[in-house]
Amino acid sequence: MRVVLLGPPGAGKGTQAQIIAARMNVPAISTGDIFRANVSGQTELGKKAKVFMDAGELVPDEITVAMVKDRLAEPDAEAGFLLDGFPRTIAQAEQLRDSLTELGHGLDRVLELVVDEEELVRRLSGRRMLVDGQMVQREDDKPETVRRRLVVYREQTAPLSGFYEEAGLLARIDAIGSVEEVTSRALQALGIQDSAGAGRPDAD
Ligand code: AMP
Questions:
Q1: Residues with catalytic roles
Q2: Hey, which residues does 6 pair with through a beta bridge?
Q3: pLDDT tens, position by position, 5-14
């Protein structure tokens, strides 16, 4: 199965991507994570991306698309993938569609996590991640950058919702609630059986 997870920063895409991809038995591919790994590793790609990331802007399409193309060509993505944070512009979506067509594939579903903006600001300002044993705030979760990221989302990424709706691929789910509740809605929207319920005999 080939799935895109769409949604604003703070919607819980990263968390849900890990859980859903494990259930789908495909890799979760997060462009944000790949960029952050390159920033930490101080690679050329990381140095280029950091400038845009710290400003809350999108990394230019040509850098991002080439990186995703390489990642999708790896053997573990052959049978399927869950993309988290890509595409983020219509141009990226068109290039993804064309690359998949070349490979004889297409997307099966695009799942949009819906959260109102007030809740996003609240979540992002409180978000911390573990780095070298310490809980730190992501540089781009600082309040001014968060505001910019939300504007960028509204202007450049939100139109993807209509793009995928027209393609008949879009499923929208309410992403407010516990992680388990949102996962359950997501699996249902993807037509994957939710076996997380208690008491299931472990047959496999
Ligand atoms: P994320 O972890 O998905 O919130 O991504 C963090 C940052 O990485 C974003 O604010 C962008 O600067 C950059 N980024 C991640 N994915 C993309 C993408 N598909 N296109 C452009 N920039 C991206």
A1: 13, 88, 127, 138, 149
A2: 112
A3: 999 999 999 9
